[in-house]
């Protein structure tokens, strides 16, 4: 008799599966069985429920298995395509498992790497380090079971093609139990899990950095050596410069002592004025010349100006304003009142002082008492004036006959016209028109005689004539009028070529007339040996050079000896018998006093020409 097998008891640990199976059976049968134990219906129900439980569990297991497979595939992809190579190796270093990146790093297909020794890829010089890494990774004798500590190591590997690269290994030893060994290896015992990272770029960067640091260190050391040598040289140069400077300071001190001694005991009054107008230095001669001590003049900037003659102060202020604008030596002449009231002439020389960078440092000045020299110049000027007057009187004496003739002509005409008028008045009836004409002629002739006397009087008088703006052509005409009779008596033909638009000059009319008178008389005397028809005198004025006019007196005489031209204007030198030798000297002095020049040249054919120049007068500079 067969025994009925009892259905297995529903698993209590899956109550949700039983409930799901019962619900599914109820939906399929449409009835709810009685729950009386031991009845056949209950047993059938239990069997049906158990069957459904198994089906549900099987379905659930398949779903879980599918999810596990999908998860495994995802983790395999991560494992294979990780940027790090993963290896499983034995304690001897044989490769049991490797991911795709590990095979890529070694440059060998993954299938060929299995059971290969990983140490065969280690460069020869790093193999000892590899063996030490394996030894330290494996568990030591007497150590407790379980995973060991993670060990790290950096090695240089070499691929089959000879290319080398650097890796970092991180290894850990895992104890394998039955069923946990890598698939297909059949290896039990400890397995080393190794992660391999390519650090070639890092090593190259570190190598470059070390090389760069080495080069930088060498360069720095070289620069330090060069700079040290440079500093040593600078120190040596400084030492020499200090010695030179000490010597220079000593020489400067000695030089300053010498120059101060010279400045303190010089005859002139020396001073140095700062840009602010303060006296930096003033020599002791100041008190001898001005009567004031240096400390008295240094009280204020206007103290120096106050001792200057009032008429000269404007020129002094203008001179002071030009100190900065004209960086060159300049001079000025002015008068001062000494402390005792005495008037003294001072010749002032000054020179602006600048530093190495061109900055204005003040004015260096020298003042000399030239009162005695100035007085001598004034005395000499008076003597020259007196001599010039003597020359004029002497010249007038030489022209006495022609001057008498020049006066006799208008006087004779006056007498004749007076007689004629008297006869016309005696007529009955008197001819008033003729009488009026005779009287007019008398007036003209008397005016002519008056002009001659006035010009003679100007030559003889001692009055000092001031300079004024005048027309040189008019002076020439007046001189020729004065010499009209002399020219006729000596049979001299005079030709005048005067520039009609000649500018005015600033001059003394009497002095310029004296020059022309002397030159024309000399020309007539030079032509005295010529035949009457060959005595030609030519007077011209031109305005050729900018800023000046030129006057020429040209004769047709015998000319000047070449050896005598250079001495013509020397005082007391003469080529005339009985001459004083002062006419041309005085003429040159007068022209030069007018800021002009006088010279003589021989004409190409015959005779000589005397030329003098005078500056044009400008109204803004009277």
Describe this structure in words.
The chain is an alpha+beta fold and 622 residues long. It folds into five domains: 15-78; 83-198, Beta-Lactamase (2-Layer Sandwich); 266-369, Beta-Lactamase (2-Layer Sandwich), CATH 3.30.450; 387-464; 465-622, Heat Shock Protein 90. It has 18 helices and 17 strands. The chain has helices spanning 15-29, 40-80, 100-106, 110-113, 127-137, 200-265, 285-290, 294-297, 303-306, 313-321, 371-398, 400-426, 432-460, 472-482, 484-489, 509-526, 562-565, 583-593; strands spanning 85-89, 95-98, 151-158, 164-176, 189-198, 269-273, 279-282, 330-337, 343-354, 360-369, 468-470, 493-498, 505-507, 536-542, 548-555, 597-602, 608-615. The strands form four sheets. Strands 2-1-5-4-3 form a five-stranded antiparallel β-sheet, with helices on both faces. Strands 7-6-10-9-8 form a five-stranded antiparallel β-sheet, sandwiched between helices. A hairpin with a 5-residue loop joins strand 16 and strand 17. Helix 1 (15-29) crosses helix 2, helix 14 (472-482) crosses helix 16 (509-526) and helix 16 packs antiparallel against helix 18 (583-593). It starts with 14 loop residues before the first helix and ends in a 7-residue tail after the last strand.
């Amino acid at each position: 008799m067969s025994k009925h097998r009892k259905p297995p008891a529903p698993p209590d640990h899956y109550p949700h599966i039983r409930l799901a199976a019962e619900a599914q059976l109820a939906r399929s049968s449409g009835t709810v069985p009685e729950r009386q134990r031991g009845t056949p219906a209950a047993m059938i129900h239990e069997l049906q429920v158990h069957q459904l439980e198994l089906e549900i569990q099987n379905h659930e297991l398949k779903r879980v298995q599918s999810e596990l497979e999908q998860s495994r595939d995802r983790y395999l992809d991560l494992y294979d395509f990780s940027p790090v190579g993963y290896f499983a190796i034995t304690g001897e270093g044989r490769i049991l498992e490797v991911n795709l990146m590990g095979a890529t790093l070694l440059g060998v297909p993954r299938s060929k790497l299995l059971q290969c020794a990983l140490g065969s890829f280690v460069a020869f010089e790093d193999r000892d380090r590899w063996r030490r890494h394996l030894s330290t990774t494996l568990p030591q004798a007497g150590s407790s079971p379980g995973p060991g500590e993670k060990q790290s190591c950096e090695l240089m590997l070499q691929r089959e093609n000879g290319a080398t690269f650097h890796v970092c290994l991180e290894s850990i030893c895992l104890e394998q139990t039955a069923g946990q060994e890598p698939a297909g290896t059949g290896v039990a015992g400890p397995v080393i899990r190794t992660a391999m990272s390519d650090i070639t770029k890092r090593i190259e960067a570190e190598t470059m950095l070390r090389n760069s640091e080495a080069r930088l260190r060498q360069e720095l050391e070289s620069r330090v050596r060069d700079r040290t040598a440079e500093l040593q040289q600078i120190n040596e140069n400084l030492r020499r410069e200090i010695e030179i400077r000490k010597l220079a300071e000593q020489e400067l001190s000695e030089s300053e002592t010498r120059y101060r001694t010279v400045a303190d005991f010089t005859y002139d009054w020396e001073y140095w004025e700062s840009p602010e107008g303060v006296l930096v230095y003033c020599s002791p001669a100041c008190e001898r010349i001005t009567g004031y001590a240096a400390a008295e003049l240094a009280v204020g900037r206007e103290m120096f100006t106050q001792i200057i003659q009032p008429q000269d102060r404007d020129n002094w202020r203008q001179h002071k304003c030009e100190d900065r604008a004209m960086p060159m030596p300049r001079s000025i002449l002015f008068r001062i009142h000494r402390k005792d009231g005495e008037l003294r002439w001072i010749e002032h020389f000054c020179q602006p002082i600048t530093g190495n960078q061109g900055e204005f440092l003040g004015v260096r000045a020298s003042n000399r008492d030239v009162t005695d020299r100035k007085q001598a110049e004034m005395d000499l000027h008076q003597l020259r004036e007196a001599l010039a007057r003597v020359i004029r009187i002497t010249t007038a004496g030489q022209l006495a006959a022609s001057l008498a003739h020049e006066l006799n002509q208008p006087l004779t005409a006056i007498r004749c016209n007076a007689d004629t008028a008297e006869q016309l008045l005696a007529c009955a009836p008197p001819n008033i028109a003729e009488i009026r004409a005779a009287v007019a002629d008398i007036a003209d002739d008397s005016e002519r005689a008056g002009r001659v006397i006035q010009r003679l009087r100007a030559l003889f008088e001692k009055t000092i004539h001031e300079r004024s703006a005048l027309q040189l052509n008019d002076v020439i005409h007046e001189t020729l009028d004065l010499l009209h009779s002399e020219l006729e008596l000596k049979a001299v033909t005079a030709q005048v070529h005067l520039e009609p638009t000649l500018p005015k000059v600033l001059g003394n009319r009497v002095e310029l007339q004296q020059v022309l008178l002397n030159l024309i008389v000399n020309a007539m005397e030079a032509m005295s040996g010529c035949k009457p028809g060959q005595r030609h005198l030519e007077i011209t004025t031109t305005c050729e050079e900018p800023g000046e006019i030129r006057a020429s007196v040209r004769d047709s005489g015998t000319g000047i000896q070449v050896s005598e031209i250079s001495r013509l204007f020397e005082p007391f030198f003469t080529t005339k018998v009985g001459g004083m030798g002062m006419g041309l000297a005085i003429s040159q002095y007068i022209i030069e006093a007018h800021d002009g020049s006088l010279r003589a040249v021989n004409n190409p054919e015959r005779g000589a020409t005397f030329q003098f120049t005078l500056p044009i007068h400008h109204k803004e500079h009277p």
